[in-house]
Amino acid sequence: MLLGKLCDEIGFNSIPSKLFRPLVFSRLESPSSKLKTTDYWSKYHDIEIDFVNIYRYLDKLHDDQREVVQQISFEHTKKILGGAVQMVFYDVTTLYFEAEHEDDLRKTGFSKDGKHQHPQIVLGLL
Question: What is the mean pLDDT of the chain?
Fold first, then answer.
């Protein structure tokens, strides 16, 4: 619900697709492969998505909707920064923890530091 409201507030509700939100939300909630994304939505949201349709939609998103998504993102960023956007930098990295077990925040996975066995978080800076 919260992610849906945020999506609407940003302006992504104008994107005509049943797959846009599930794909965005799954990247935030449980980043994984396209096939695992379909399993996640089936298990936790009771929504069946065919992974072939995901690939088809990603092609359409790239070819037809990329500029719309970029424009919506830019306009929202401009709005929250008071109308003055000269340049925005974004970076993502992973931070690992010397812990043995995962929790709701920290999950094992890919690590640029080679610490695949340690729980970690993804940190994004804007």
Answer: 86
User: What global pTM score does this model have?
Assistant: 0.64
Cβ count near 108 (within 10 Å): 15
DSSP 5-72: HHHHHHTGGGS--SSHHHHHHHHHHS---HHHHHHHHHHHH-----HHHHHHHHHHIIIIIHHHHHHH
Residue 52 above 80 pLDDT? yes
Any idea where the domains of the chain sit in the sequence?
A: 2-80, 89-126
Cα end-to-end distance, the chain, whole Å = 24
